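User: Show me a protein chain along with its predicted structure.
Assistant: Here is one chain, sequence first, then structure tokens.
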Amino acid sequence: MKEKIHSIIEITDTHIKFLQAQKQKDEISLVRRIVRERPDAEESVVGPGVLQDIPVKDIEDHEVTIVIPRRLVVVKQLELPSVQEQEIRRMIELQITNHVPYPRERIIFDFQIINKEKAGYAQVLVVIAHKDLIDQYLAVVQKAGLYTHRLLVSSFCLLGWYQKYKQEESGGPVMFVYCDGTAVEVCFIQGDKLLFSRQIVLGSRDLAKARPRLMEQLDLTISAYHKQGVGADIEKIAVAADGESGDVLQNDLNERYRIPVDILSLGEDPEYKDVAIFGAADAHINLIPEEVLDTKKFRVRRKEFVKAFIMAFIACCLAFGIWGVDIVRDMTYLRELDYQLEGLKPEVQAVKEQMQLISVAREEKQKRVFIPDIVRELYILTPQDISFQSVQVNQNGMLTIQGFDKSGVAVNQLQKGLMDSEFFSDVTLQYATKRKRFNQEYTDFRINCQLSPGEDKNVEEG
């Protein structure tokens, strides 16, 4: 099965990059690359015609991933008392207005869990953007006849790029400094997680004349990282730059911070420079508004419905064609079955009558009680001081017991035993009268109860 080609549009402050990549297992290969300078580079907003040179017809499903600069969003690390994603999202919704000067309805955010602690707390990296800004980028993409599949931030693409090209594993946090022609982006990375990031609008073209300013901005960035308490001390610095700029930065950083500095040379390979294709494949942060996601789900469902309808129509056509070819044979076979069914009708009727007789017999059997079982149960339940004078059963299954009790308490034991027995129900003590005869007291009693028929007992009056 051919892997899908992913289309990515990276919009920087000065350029538009259109990248198409294909991911096979863990390898990502660049299929197409178009780079254009932004005609509206001096403007503060993205112009409606910035994507006019993008070959829309070559994009599968017209779906693209948009990558925007880090400076356009706010990144905060929070510690929240939950490790469940749904609960964390609700907590962020309640707290988010404390971290940005925007009303809640004008905020779009997403988050990534950095660490889960045993005490039930989670460290979370939250990315916050103003809705007007996101709507602006979505409108530009929509005007070009495309759908935005995901909207990512450049820092998470840099994270994916660093994971692919890092020279060695570091146990502690790494400060990754990426330099292109117009900006320097600093990411603090530990393992496969982004802890913090900042973009400095000062590209590698300016390093020769603005090195002091760059170092000052790096100091401020490290200070902000420590001030927020988002991670441990930096153990290593990794720099991605072209050869000349990398050498300059390596010397300055070594002298200033006294920690190991690795240089990842960008070289001339365009695939090596285009970081967006790596982060776009696996990034978890997506700043698409809910209403856009709902529209996409509807579009997908509509597409699936159309496919299903077409497949059903084709299936019906095939079935109709097969039926048309074999119609004579099928009708002959049906007539033969009808003839056989007519011959089986008397046998079927006889079986039905036998089943009906068996059902009636089973019902009658379930309504009957076997008197020896009743006598045996009474024998077991009757205390020693009880003497029966008469035991009668009427046609409705009502059992009447008359007798006398020598002790005066045995009649209560008999009544309780009858109530607990599965053979009797509705047990009622009609009377229990103390009497005296020949200077001896006894209790004369009468008990009524209903015999209880069941599947294992037959009704049969003796």
